[in-house]
Amino acid sequence: MVAEPPLPPTISAQLKHLLFHSSLPFRVEQIWSGCKNSRFSDRFTLLIPFCLDYVKWDIVYNALFPSAAPDIVFSPNDEEFCPLLPIIDGEGEVEVVARLKKSFLWDWNGKDPSRLLKLVEEMRDLYVQYQRKRVGEIDDARLKFEISTIFSREGIEVCLGAGTDKSEEVKFVVPLLDIDLNKHVHACPWKQQQKIYLQAIFPVSRMYSSAPSAPRLKLVSSSQLKDLLSIEDVKLPSWVDGMCMAEYLPTLEENLKIQVIEALASIGSRRRFIEALVPKFGRHLEADPIFCRRATFLAVSGVFTFLVHFSLSTQFPKQQPILTLQSSQHYNSQGAPILSPSLNDYPWSPRWGDAEMTERLFDFIVKECVNFKRYCLDAVAS
């Protein structure tokens, strides 16, 4: 497969600025050229984050005039989304000031690397409004009530789609908790702002129902947040018959806030535990300095040398660490060090202090390393 030529420097600078400086996780799916045998590519497919999913827009430049403004080709499923067409007033006349004059396209400056990001963010904001308008026009009394009671909340996104049985449904995505999680994590490694969302999916019903079914509810966050809090472990409050989201959200956010605070406090608990291991095991070879989820120590029993890997969950100390022993002297047929199975069948109580936790773990490993050495010898001999 022949690789596509590179983007011209002007266009490349704009794309790099967008990907590096955006607060949203934009992604590039493909880059290609509009002309055969061209020195440069001049168009690419951009994945636009929206409603916990992505929509695809093609950004089309002209390699012969790289400083000219690009065209944007929107998804074929959004034929009615025409954000830059002139506005028609009530008498059928085109307004003097068209939308284009209000857009970042109007005074385009190709030498400004921030222009593409501003343009795409502008189009995305208009797309959010377009989807809201679509949902607002649905003839469903329940959805109209949900919209009227919750749309004043900042950051909500909605979209109309089809379920697995091809029936219409509306997805609400609601950002939760007015907490800057990035600022609460020391030496935070996250580039983008971490958020937790409630996804609520309502079926579209054209008929009034006195007891409409509960929406499908799910908490969603970025995969990066799992080092702090496992969203899958958060139990959602029950949805009571006749309830709406405006009633549901306060209880959900109150419960979630408590668990986030506990998760942040758990970082300190894990750090103190790892530090308490040092007097018994010596200084760690490796350790996670930010979330304190992992640590590795070197241990010796006679002439047998091995590593002890500690894996701590976000539920520590309620959940005990998982231990894995790794020989530094025995290798399998593929040349990889021999590892023990995961170990968590040892005495543990979250009420013990760090010193007692460490003492009990040390005693367990002193006994377990004998079994592990035998396990290694059997593995090598087989």
UniProtKB/TrEMBL annotation:
Q: Which residues cross the membrane?
A: none
Q: Which InterPro entries match?
A: BRE
Q: Name one Pfam family in it.
A: BRE
Q: Which UniProt keywords apply?
A: Apoptosis, Cell cycle, Cell division, Chromatin regulator, Cytoplasm, DNA damage, DNA repair, Mitosis, Nucleus, Repeat, Ubl conjugation pathway
Q: What's a single GO CC term here? A: cytoplasm
Q: Which GO terms describe its biological process?
A: cell division; chromatin organization; double-strand break repair
What is the annotated localization of this protein?
Cytoplasm; Nucleus
What family does the database annotate?
Belongs to the BABAM2 family.
Q: Under what name is this protein listed?
A: BRISC and BRCA1-A complex member 2
State the organism named in the record: Apostasia shenzhenica
